[in-house]
Input
Amino acid sequence: MKSIPIFNRDKTNEVEGTAIIVGASLSGLMAGIALSREGLNVTILERAKEGRPGGAGLQVDGSRFGASKTENLLRNLASGGRNMIQLWTTIERNLREEAKKSTRINLRYETRVKKVDQDDTSSWADLDNGERIHADLLIGADGHRSLVRRYVAPEKPDATFAGYMVWMASMDEENLPPEDRPSANQPRVRMLGSHNGFLFGSVINREDSSGYRRLGTTWYDNSRNDLLRQLGCVEGDVVIHSLSGQDVPEQTLKELATQATSLWDEPFASVMRYAAKNRTVMGIPIKEYVPERLVRGRVALIGDAAHVPAPVTASGFNQSIIDASILGECTGKGVQGSKAMEVLKDYESRRLQSVRRMVKSGQSYSRSLGRA
Ligand SMILES: Cc1cc2nc3c(=O)[nH]c(=O)nc-3n(C[C@H](O)[C@H](O)[C@H](O)COP(=O)(O)OP(=O)(O)OC[C@H]3O[C@@H](n4cnc5c(N)ncnc54)[C@H](O)[C@@H]3O)c2cc1C
Output
């Protein structure tokens, strides 16, 4: 196995240390930006290709009293510092472009991490191409099925199925007849209820110059747990994968279209029918993870790798902004040698209780909707 340090640690270059981040989705990019602003050289490793599609909208808390400069920067990149629903693709692109501007960030796509470990002097990631990369600290930003979490918390490695799913669908409004498009003064977010679930409908501005908007729906559904198990999305208590439109059985697509017509108001029923017809609907089994720890030595977790709240809390991404900013603050005095461990202990002491509370706040809701 080739073994490569990620950067030389020449202090004349004012490098305060090195970090590896596993995952270059929203949390990984934010962590990379935050650490690079504190003088660390950062390598971010992402198994997916650059510029993946993603149609969902996230509720972003754009401002927070007392936020640090880094937190303000991240909130600006996410939503221009405003409270709003923002397209995932827009947030990801803004963060990726900011990360690319930094000479301290080495962003590597199509690079899968197979294993992580550490000793007294460094942490490392083994890649599936045989490379080993060393750094002072290693951050797991690798999502709800985190490999790094298995290393940090082997006694509690998995997020657990909450007993329900969401169907996510979206479409550009110009694909609807003009009379069915939402009016300019319709609320940006609507919540519609039914006996076995409910739906959030959203109207989101696009960034192209067309003047058209994107319509999104998130349908909370507790009636299809058997289907999730039959299709291998859920095994035992653990969520294995989501369901892409291509993999939803034809019969289920027909049922979704019919139920949408009877349960939901326009234009959101049309959005669901459109996504069912074009197989762009996405089924996401909901999972939760209350962490007991965030850190092991010089390895730490952030974002969904660290905590998975029910989406109804609208806080997974918002808390990840705070994770990344506080992680940055903690590393401000450098992470070389044994300092890495002190820095990460500090990070854990500032985040653990607060993220545990956040996940628990969604659990009472999940218990009432979920049929585990
Ligand atoms: C339906 C729904 C609605 C939501 N709504 C909101 C909301 O309104 N507001 C809000 O704040 N939050 C919301 N959330 C939560 C939010 O989407 C997540 O918290 C956030 O996107 C998590 O980002 P992440 O970067 O931590 O994880 P992920 O986006 O899962 O990224 C993990 C990354 O790691 C990569 N990776 C994994 N393993 C490896 C490996 N071995 N090697 C290399 N790369 C790897 C993956 O490819 C991926 O890119 C919602 C979630 C859902 C499901």
About this structure: Confidence is low (pLDDT under 50) at residues 7-12. Residues 22-28, 45-48, 58-59, 112-113, 141-144, 147, 166, 168, 218, 284, 303-304, 311, 314-318, 320 surround flavin-adenine dinucleotide (CB under 6 Å). The first helix runs from residue 26 to 37. Residues 2-158+289-369 form a domain with the FAD/NAD(P)-binding domain fold (CATH 3.50.50.60).
